[in-house]
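# nightly structure sweep
# worker-07 picked up a monomer target from the shared queue
# config: single-sequence mode, recycle default, output format = structure tokens
# input follows
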Amino acid sequence: MARRTAQENRTTIRAAARELFAEQGYDRATVRAIAARAGVDPAVVIRSFGSKADLFAATVDVELGIDLTGDAPTTPDEIGELIARHVLRRWEQDDVLLVLLRTAVEHEPARDRLVEVMSGQVVPMIQRLGVPADEARLRATLVATQVIGLAMVRLVARVEPLASASHDDVVRWLAPTFQRYLTDPL
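# output follows
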């Protein structure tokens, strides 16, 4: 079997860690178990990332990628649907957000990272709509209640009928709420 490069090891370890953090949460996922899943010695995990906490931070590095200034024709009246569609797609395509969600309940750094993602990425997006910073933080928090609730019910607990509802139906149901949180008077 060919030896992997340091970068290949990092990629493999990060993927194994993401799976275990998602399955077991931060506290129960051990460096030894992550190493076993990645097919490396635990020392390689530590040499590659420094610590379990550093590995977790590298695993949950995420960009939401919501761009209100891009090419998509977006008016303030369409922002709720744009965000609902984008967020739903991100939750369903990238398990890093689920890793954050599942671990945030028990692990303060995960909670901090989840807040950082919402405030660091969603607040500036809302401010681009001309909303002052304090109000943008409140609006982002309101959006986060729906985003996190949706992910918990649809993707973690898999509660029906929401778990198997079509993407378009979920967007249709959530978009007006996002729209209200983002543009209606508070």
